[in-house]
Each structure stands twice: as C-alpha cells, then as structure tokens.
Specification:
CATH superfamily of the largest domain: Resolvase, N-terminal catalytic domain
Shape: elongated
Radius of gyration: 27 Å
Distance between the termini: 72 Å
Oligomer: single chain
Number of strands: 4
Order of helices and strands: EHHEHEHHEHHHH
Largest sheet: 4 strands, parallel
Number of domains: 2
Length: 211
C-alpha cells in the first residue's frame, strides 16, 4: 500500500481561518488517497504561490522522506506557480503526486506548469496593454468604483436623515448607549436591518454630519 503526505496551500490567513480553499483541496486528496493508499500526514501553508520560501513545504517533504511516502497535492497550482521551483523540488528526488491528475508523469507536470506560467504572463501583458490604451484614450480608470461609492453614500444619507429628524434630534445630549437602547426599544432597525449599538449611533452621527 502506497503512503502519502499531503501538502495544501492557501494564499492568505483569512483563507486559512475560514477554510476557504482548504476544504476543496482536502476533498480531492482524500478521494485520491482512499483508492490508492493511506495518508500519513497533513501540512498546511499560508503563503502566496509566487513566493518560494516555503518552510512548511520543506517540512512536509522531510516528513515524506522520513516515512518513505509520496508527497500528494490537490492541484499543481497549489504547489507552486513557478516552473523553476517545481523543477528544483523534483530534482531532489521528491515523488510528487497531483490528486487532480494522478497519472501525470514528471515530464507532463513540467509541461503543465510551463503552460500555466506562460498563460499568466500573457494575461498580465494583455491587462497592462489594455490599461495603457484606455489611459491613452483619456478614459478615467476606476469610474465604476467611484460611482458605486457615491451611490452608497447617498443611500446612507437618505436613510440617516429621517432617523435624525424623527428620533435623534430630540435625543441630543443623551449618551450613545442610551440612544441605541431607545432605538432598539422603538423597534427601529439599522440600514442593514440589525440592532443598534453605541458605536453604530456614533457612526451615523459622525459619518453623516448629523451631530
């Protein structure tokens, strides 16, 4: 029976805490290992795919060597986005298995990695060219974001105005905690439909210049 040590990678701490991305990787690996052998260890690293200083990866590799197991990853892009880095690892004699394509040879993995790296380069080139052309034509970049921000600000003002006129104006001098308590007692929801808190009241009074 073949032995495997799993290595999974997420790019941010937030993804690590939420499990975003990890669940899919773990599922792919588990489904593969179930029909091919046993899992002897699991290593999770929080690191951008562009960075090659992978302490946890090398710990996973050492553990795989120690227990005479293969290193298994869910997808090639979870391992690295660099062809040279993948080659560096393979040159050390590491037996690498990709759960998504378990029959791929080392040569094929090099080809797939090279194709993916070239596609990312071309996307970057096309994106930069498009931005430069838009700038040359005098188009304002980021206009949609500004319009959306202005619309949200207007909506917030439209909501806050009546709240101020009906409730807050007559409660001037009260603490934020007392105002929040009274709004909740009146059954008045926040713009998001939730409860009022002292900080919520403070935000409405300061952000919308109602105080």
């Amino acid at each position: 029976m073949e032995r495997y040590v799993a290595y999974m990678r997420v790019s941010t701490e937030r993804q690590g805490r939420s499990g975003l991305g990890l669940a899919a990787q773990r599922k792919l690996i588990a489904e593969f290992v179930e029909g091919h052998g046993e899992l002897c260890g699991e290593f999770i690293e929080i690191k951008s795919g562009r960075k090659n200083d992978r302490q946890v990866l090398w710990e996973a590799i050492k553990e795989a060597q120690r227990v005479k197991a293969k290193l298994v990853i869910a997808r090639l892009d979870r391992f690295s986005r660099s062809v040279s880095f993948i080659a560096q690892v393979m040159d050390k004699g590491i037996a690498l298995t990709v759960a998504e394509m378990p029959t791929a040879t080392d040569f094929q993995l090099h080809i797939f990695a090279a194709l993916a790296q070239e596609e990312r380069r071309l996307i970057s080139v096309r994106t930069k060219a498009a931005l430069q052309e838009a700038k040359r034509q005098g188009k304002a970049l980021g206009v949609n974001g500004k319009v959306l921000a202005e619309r949200r600000q207007n909506e917030a003002q439209e909501f806050a105005g009546p709240i101020w006129e009906r409730y807050l104006r007559g409660w001037q001098g009260l603490s934020y905690s007392e105002i929040a308590r009274r709004l909740n007692a009146e059954g008045v929801p926040t713009r998001a439909g939730g409860k009022w808190y002292p900080q919520t009241v403070r935000n409405y009074c300061s952000d919308h210049a109602l105080a």
